[in-house]
Design goal:
Blueprint: H1 3-17, E1 22-27, E2 32-38, E3 41-48, H2 50-63, E4 75-83, E5 86-96, E6 101-109, H3 123-132, E7 138-143, H4 150-165, E8 169-173, E9 184-187, H5 196-204, E10 210-213, H6 219-230, E11 234-239, H7 244-254, H8 258-264, E12 265-275, E13 299-307, H9 308-317, H10 328-337
Parallel strand pairs: 7-11, 7-12, 8-9, 8-10, 10-11
Antiparallel strand pairs: 1-2, 1-6, 2-3, 4-5, 5-6, 12-13
Helix pairs in contact: 1-2, 5-6
Length: 357
């Protein structure tokens, strides 16, 4: 193993050990900065010479099947590897920056089978999510900004459904983020004419019980999700919106009729990830701490689940709906009252939750 290969393996191992989600190669005038994103924050890891960093980037590009000679256009690629005895799916993205090429590597561990009870410190949220699996058909949406854990929550629900009911689950994603032997997973590939539209038609012929569409991006994918629910399937998808009501507004804005939403939408789950500490010990648990789950989990999800009568009220009356349901701010203040976060401010500390993302 030469120097470039050793350094490449070292970077991946360090990133995995500290639960980094991304490795950034940032070109600068005289060198290249290596940064790791850990729990939404960027930390400096190393500084490499321009030539050595370029060789490492080319090494990763070659392994991911990307064009090494092309540095003028953005590229993307992927690679499955085993790091520290764990299967990891790597996604690569390059940008032709002003100085030199920039690279970001996303690490997606494939072994974690997260259960609903592991997602949040609030057991009522897990119970509400689980109740949505009681529907045989309809559309369940997960809303939130990038990095809020939507896909993780959706996969946890699919895993729960598979264990409990053994349904035929077919996914259509761009790209597939977590591989699961119990699912049939399709990846959008426009070069092979496998689009969301053509993939959806193929899925319907494959006798699915549950369909997961990776993300609603536009009217076409929104129509696909609604059509799948109308045809009698339980459909999961994600959408970029600030909260549950904002997700409904987003669907109306792209052109989905309100009548179709009334017929198909059974639940909207908006979420955020918040940094937490042990309510007894603070940032670091003592050896005899009863809050064992807090030792290795620095973040937890808070959920705003719009379903049942409050959902019907919102779909019928829009902004004049009066039925109350628990909002993201309510959960954040509850977490503060229980001692999991430092203070109970009036607003969430992550982004502007009143504006669409």
């Amino acid at each position: 193993m030469n120097e470039v290969e050793k350094k490449s393996e070292e970077l991946l191992e360090i990133a995995l050990r500290i639960n980094a989600s991304d490795i950034h190669f940032v070109p600068r005038k005289d060198d290249t900065l290596i940064e790791l994103r850990v729990y939404d924050h960027l930390y400096e890891l190393d500084i490499l010479s321009c030539d050595f960093a370029e060789r490492i980037i080319n090494h990763f590009k070659f392994r991911a099947g990307m064009d090494i000679g092309e540095k003028r256009r953005p590229q993307s690629g992927s690679l499955d590897v085993v790091i520290l005895h764990q299967p990891i799916h790597l996604r690569f993205s390059t940008l032709p920056a002003a100085l030199r090429e920039s690279l970001v590597i996303r690490l997606l561990p494939q072994t974690s089978d997260i259960r609903l009870n592991d997602l949040s410190i609030f057991s009522e949220s897990a119970a509400q999510l689980e109740s949505l699996l009681g529907y045989e058909n309809g559309l369940i949406l997960f809303a939130g900004p990038t990095g809020s854990g939507k896909t993780t929550s959706m996969y946890a629900m699919l895993h729960t459904a598979k264990r409990r009911y053994n349904p035929r689950i077919v996914t259509l994603e761009d790209p597939v983020e977590k591989r699961h032997d119990g699912f049939i997973q399709m990846e959008v590939n426009e070069k092979a004419d496998l689009t969301y539209q053509t993939g959806f038609k193929a899925i319907l012929r494959h006798d699915p019980d549950i369909i997961m569409i990776g993300e609603i991006r536009d009217l076409e994918t929104a129509k696909i999700a609604v059509r799948a629910a109308i045809t009698g399937h339980l459909v999961f998808s994600t959408i970029h919106a600030s909260d549950s009501i904002g997700a409904i507004h987003r669907l109306l804005e792209v052109g989905i009729p309100r009548f179709d939403l009334k017929e198909t939408l059974v639940g909207v789950v908006a979420q955020r990830l918040i940094h937490i500490h042990c309510p007894r010990c603070g940032p670091v648990c003592s050896p005899d701490c009863p809050h064992q789950e807090q030792r290795n989990h620095r973040r937890t999800a808070i959920y705003e689940i719009l379903a049942g009568l409050p959902l019907h009220d919102v779909l019928k009356n829009g902004s004049s709906a009066k039925r109350r349901f628990k909002r993201l701010d309510d959960y954040y203040r509850q977490a503060a009252a229980l001692g999991y976060v430092a203070s109970s401010s009036d607003a969430l500390p992550i982004g502007d939750h009143n504006a669409s993302s």
